[in-house]
Amino acid sequence: MSVVVAILLALAVLVEVLAVTGLIVLRTTMQRLHVVGAATCVAPVLVGVAAAVGTHATPSQGAKGLLIALLLVVFGGVLSHATGQAAYARETEST
User: Fold this and answer.
1) 8 Cβ neighbours under 8 A, 6+ residues apart
2) pTM of the predicted model, to two decimals?
3) Is 50 within 8 Å of 5 (Cβ atoms)?
4) Which candidate, 86, 85, 79, 2, places its Cα nearest to that of 36?
């Protein structure tokens, strides 16, 4: 089990490193939001699955990890959408 957990966590770290690289490379706010959106959807799921697979105590701890990952995915998308709307309103207001 520990090999699977290590692989899942390594993939989550790789996703986050790619997201940070995208934030550095990309220029516009909308492009950066797409990268952040991908990072907030993929990495929490990988970490949540790793927590569920690697839990040795009780299944409820694994379920809590998956629930936290689900909440991060949902609210990360909501936050990205609200930020995108605010950035778009600011861009259209200034032109």
Assistant:
1) 46, 47, 49, 50, 53
2) 0.78
3) yes
4) 79
Concatenated DSSP letters of the chain:
-HHHHHHHHHHHHHHHHHHHHHHHH--SHHHHHHHHHHHHHHHHHHHHHHHHHH--S-HHHHHHHHHHHHHHHHHHHHHHHHHHHHHHHHHHHH-
Tokens read off for 4:
């699977």
Q: Encoding tokens for residue 24?
A: 């550095």
- Residues 6-26: pLDDT tens digits? 999 999 999 999 999 999 999
In the prediction, which pLDDT does 1 show?
65
